[in-house]
Amino acid sequence: MPLTKNEMMTMLYNQLNISRKECVDIVESFFEIIKSELEKGNPVMISGFGKWTVRPKRERKGRNPQTGEDLTITARKVVTFKASPNLISSINP
């Protein structure tokens, strides 16, 4: 089961003993900062956790799997995440 923003807010509320509104503001602000930096094309690195980067993908040929029709997939930007060695080692002890 994935961890949701709402569950993060509840965890902060339980661990930090601050108001729910402050927890909502903290979590929303955190994600808004990450989103805004990625929109600018800046990488976001959190030491001990990992790094998000925006990477361009070029236009390429594809195929509709239902119809088999050839199509062109347009160029776009994608967000990639590379986990830090600390995170990887904690997941795989």
Automatic annotation (TrEMBL):
<dbReference type="InterPro" id="IPR000119">
    <property type="entry name" value="Hist_DNA-bd"/>
</dbReference>
<comment type="similarity">
    <text>Belongs to the bacterial histone-like protein family.</text>
</comment>
<keyword id="KW-0805">Transcription regulation</keyword>
<dbReference type="Pfam" id="PF00216">
    <property type="entry name" value="Bac_DNA_binding"/>
</dbReference>
<keyword id="KW-0238">DNA-binding</keyword>
<dbReference type="GO" id="GO:0005829">
    <property type="term" value="C:cytosol"/>
</dbReference>
<dbReference type="InterPro" id="IPR010992">
    <property type="entry name" value="IHF-like_DNA-bd_dom_sf"/>
</dbReference>
<dbReference type="GO" id="GO:0006310">
    <property type="term" value="P:DNA recombination"/>
</dbReference>
<dbReference type="GO" id="GO:0003677">
    <property type="term" value="F:DNA binding"/>
</dbReference>
<dbReference type="GO" id="GO:0006355">
    <property type="term" value="P:regulation of DNA-templated transcription"/>
</dbReference>
<dbReference type="GO" id="GO:0006417">
    <property type="term" value="P:regulation of translation"/>
</dbReference>
<keyword id="KW-0804">Transcription</keyword>
<protein>
    <recommendedName>
        <fullName>Integration host factor subunit alpha</fullName>
    </recommendedName>
</protein>
<keyword id="KW-0810">Translation regulation</keyword>
<dbReference type="GO" id="GO:0030527">
    <property type="term" value="F:structural constituent of chromatin"/>
</dbReference>
<dbReference type="InterPro" id="IPR005684">
    <property type="entry name" value="IHF_alpha"/>
</dbReference>
<dbReference type="GO" id="GO:0009893">
    <property type="term" value="P:positive regulation of metabolic process"/>
</dbReference>
<keyword id="KW-0233">DNA recombination</keyword>
